[in-house]
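Q: Please design a sequence for this.
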């Protein structure tokens, strides 16, 4: 029977989402190893997680520079030798740093795990931060810094976090030109020694996993050769939000203005976080959102606009982000508040709410497709000390939340007077 291409396929509600749960073991030195054995191919991802993000650095650039420089030389290999050793086995080594965490990730065929783990062990335990490579790294970073400082979007992004958290809080501190002169091999080694150690490490495995994998991990990382000499100490710094609600960084030559609006909120451990994610999706969290429909599709003020809720280990924040022509900046800001107020005063129509619920369930379903994707989802609860119940509650919240409940959330959290408003450019 021929398919009628003029008829849209019927919606199908996602009834249940199966997630393969991570199992936990420990190496001899108590490093937890979480594994998601869900692969059909002879491929494995090994991720080493450290609480070594920017939250923990003593000065700007320190955490990111340490993480990037891990691959630039060890006591045994140069940067070129490290790259060649990984490439020889068709593997891939990736480093990354965020506000809270740093990671070293290995993708490799199972049959080459022993050889590639040796390289990763050397990188994690024996990095030397060569002076010449550090100079090159900082020179490149400084050049990008100068270029980005000419872009209103980048200026807005950095200043916005300063306004929310305070210029002395780890989440609010941003790089200044003078900071490049303060980074040297000595303070990189100090941070590395303090945070890249066995008692500050978690390992997440995903792919086709057998017992040999754990034996190899224990062989390379289960010993006491990278154990701490003393406990890690961090200072707790108070969040101080700027009291001035409206902020303007004027740029005379700007053709576009960057708009950032938002407030300090909470992370995913808060009982309202999941419900607020649904409200945010309607407001500005997907391509069919109200902000996009109004400010892009109807008014034509921007190519793109969005909102989100950022979850951090020690806080969180709500944000709205866009860039518009300088001649329509004031109008765009007014329309943002108009849409915010609509959610506080009007009930969301049932067909719109159902569309968003189907979208969120479908998005979640795609986000757990395959072992690597499941590992990413698992990390999202691991760092907050949450269980897999978090996902069950999320699905139940999506299905069960009502339009009236969403309006109450908007009344509570979407008050205009509680928002910081920043414009970089002209208004």
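A: Design:
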């Amino acid at each position: 029977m021929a398919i009628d291409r003029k008829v849209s396929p019927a919606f199908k509600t996602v009834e249940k989402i199966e997630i393969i749960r991570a199992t936990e073991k420990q190496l001899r030195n108590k490093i937890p190893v979480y594994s998601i054995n869900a692969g059909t191919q002879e491929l494995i991802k090994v991720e080493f997680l450290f609480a070594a993000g920017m939250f923990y650095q003593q000065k700007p650039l320190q955490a990111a520079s340490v993480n990037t420089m891990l691959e630039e030389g060890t006591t045994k290999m140069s940067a070129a030798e490290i790259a060649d050793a990984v490439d020889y086995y068709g593997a891939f080594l990736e480093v990354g740093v965020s506000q809270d965490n740093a990671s070293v990730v290995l993708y490799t065929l199972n049959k080459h795990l022993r050889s590639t783990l040796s390289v990763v062990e050397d990188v994690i335990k024996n990095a030397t931060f060569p002076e010449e490579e550090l100079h090159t790294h900082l020179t490149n970073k400084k050049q990008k810094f100068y270029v980005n400082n000419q872009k209103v979007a980048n200026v807005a992004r950095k200043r916005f976090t300063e306004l929310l958290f305070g210029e002395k809080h780890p989440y609010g501190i941003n790089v200044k030109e003078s900071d490049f002169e303060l980074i040297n091999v000595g303070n990189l080694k100090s941070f590395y020694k303090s945070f890249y150690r066995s008692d500050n490490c978690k390992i997440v495995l995903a792919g086709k996993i057998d017992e040999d994998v754990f034996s190899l991990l224990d062989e390379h990382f289960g010993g006491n050769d990278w154990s701490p000499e003393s406990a890690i100490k961090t200072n707790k710094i108070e969040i101080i939000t700027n009291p001035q609600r409206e902020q303007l960084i004027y740029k005379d030559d700007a053709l576009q203005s960057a708009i950032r609006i938002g407030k300090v909120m909470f992370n995913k451990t808060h009982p309202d976080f999941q419900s607020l994610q649904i409200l945010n999706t309607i407001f500005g969290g997907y391509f069919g959102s109200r902000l996009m429909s109004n400010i892009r599709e109807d008014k034509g003020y921007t190519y793109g606009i969005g909102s989100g809720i950022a979850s951090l280990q020690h806080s969180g924040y709500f944000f709205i982000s866009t860039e518009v022509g300088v001649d329509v900046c004031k109008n765009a800001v007014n329309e943002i508040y108009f849409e915010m107020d609509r959610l506080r005063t009007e009930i969301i129509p049932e067909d719109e709410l159902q569309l968003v619920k189907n979208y969120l369930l479908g998005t979640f379903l795609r986000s757990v497709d395959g072992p690597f994707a499941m590992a990413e989802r698992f990390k999202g609860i691991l760092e907050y000390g949450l269980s897999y119940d978090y996902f069950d509650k999320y699905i139940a919240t999506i299905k069960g939340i009502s339009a009236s409940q969403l309006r109450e959330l908007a009344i509570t959290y979407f008050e205009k007077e509680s928002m910081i408003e920043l414009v970089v450019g002209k208004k």
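Q: Thanks. Anything notable?
A: The mean pLDDT is 94. The first helix runs from residue 62 to 69.
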